[in-house]
Design a protein that fits this description.
CATH topology: lpxc deacetylase, domain 1
Radius of gyration: 18 Å
Catalytic activity: a UDP-3-O-[(3R)-3-hydroxyacyl]-N-acetyl-alpha-D-glucosamine + H2O = a UDP-3-O-[(3R)-3-hydroxyacyl]-alpha-D-glucosamine + acetate
Number of helices: 6
Number of domains: 1
Family: Belongs to the LpxC family.
Pathway: Glycolipid biosynthesis; lipid IV(A) biosynthesis; lipid IV(A) from (3R)-3-hydroxytetradecanoyl-[acyl-carrier-protein] and UDP-N-acetyl-alpha-D-glucosamine: step 2/6
Oligomer: single chain
EC number: 3.5.1.108
Number of strands: 19
Keywords: Hydrolase, Lipid A biosynthesis, Lipid biosynthesis, Lipid metabolism, Metal-binding, Zinc
CATH architecture: 2-Layer Sandwich
Length: 317
């Protein structure tokens, strides 16, 4: 997303659905917010209210999904599809009020969030949008996978490649400059996926309790089990790209640069964000008016986030 003026949603948005892992019903409300609020999750319920602002120190774990929390524990899980929609459409400020432990999975993609946001529209605020400009390459490797951020003008570009032994998926690559039209058309409808062989183990571990053919692409040895088939011929890599956009939003501001990954996932995407912000020479603030000096950078040397190992194969998004 390029520099310009900050935005927020024009009116209240309400969505209800099940969490894909918890199976819990939750109501999510997106509320307009003033400039420089950022994206804030507000957990409400009988036990009171807790809030967390999306940023590199807000991540509790990246096991199975991206979970936000604070020193007292998790606040809300599976935020990546909503964050991808907000980032992809250029929403800088919103209060995400939720009464359950997990953002509703909806149909397994970001399409419902995009449709709801576009139904009310965006309001442009007076304050300039602050972006993080990549100044030098940052690369993180995990096993055979790797991710990197590189300098590039003109907004965010993503180049994602996956490679699976499963013949239904195989090797796929996707690349695009990310703007609202591209996100809406080419990425928003790509669904999360998992493998039939993993189902019993995930259920036994207390995960995927809300998963079904209505919200997950289920891959058998030689075919997709969903009766309607794929929405895109390369839906798997497009969903991995959607996830990456949501995970990159954990930087707390839009990125100007190129993100490339090979065989990545939530854990790797977030690790690249952490590595970038830990190196004060690798980035700077920029806005619609002028690039800000290094002295204006906030410190990201807060509490260390847990980078938990996945409870299942990293190919399950």
């Amino acid at each position: 997303m390029k520099a310009g003026r900050q935005t927020t949603v024009r009116d209240r948005i309400v969505l209800t659905g099940l969490g894909v892992h918890s199976g819990a019903l939750a109501t999510l409300s997106l509320l307009p917010a003033k400039a420089d609020t950022g994206i804030v999750f507000l957990r409400v319920g009988d036990e009171g209210e807790r809030s967390v602002r999306v940023g590199p120190d807000s991540v509790s774990t990246t096991e199975l999904a991206t979970v936000l929390g604070d020193d007292s524990g998790a606040v809300v899980a599976t935020v990546e599809h909503l964050l991808a929609a907000l980032s992809g459409l250029g929403v800088d400020n919103a209060i995400c009020e939720i009464d359950g432990p997990e953002v509703p999975i909806m149909d397994g993609s970001a399409a419902a969030f995009v449709a709801a946001i576009e139904a009310v529209g965006l309001r442009t605020l007076a304050a300039p949008r602050r972006c993080i400009r990549i100044l030098k390459p940052i690369k993180v490797a995990m096993g055979r996978g790797w991710g990197e951020l590189r300098p590039r003008d003109g907004g965010l570009r993503v180049e994602v490649e996956i490679d699976f032994d499963n013949p239904t998926i195989g090797r796929q690559a996707y690349a695009a400059d990310i703007d609202p039209a591209t996100f809406r058309r080419d990425l928003a409808r790509a669904r999360t996926f998992g493998f039939l062989a993993d189902v019993s183990r995930l259920w036994g571990a207390g995960y995927a309790l809300g998963a079904s053919l209505d919200n997950t692409l289920v891959v058998a040895e030689d075919r997709v089990l969903n009766p309607e088939g794929l929405r895109y011929a390369d839906e798997f890599v497009r969903h991995k790209t959607l996830d990456a956009i949501g995970d990159l939003a954990l930087a707390g501001a839009p990125l100007i640069g190129l993100y490339r990954s090979y065989c990545g996932g939530h854990r790797l995407n977030y690790a690249v964000v952490r590595a970038l912000l830990a190196d004060a020479t690798a980035w700077c603030w920029t806005d619609a008016l002028a690039e800000r000096p290094a002295a204006s950078r906030p410190s990201y040397a807060g509490r260390g986030a847990q980078l938990a190992m996945p409870a299942f194969r990293a190919d399950h998004s």
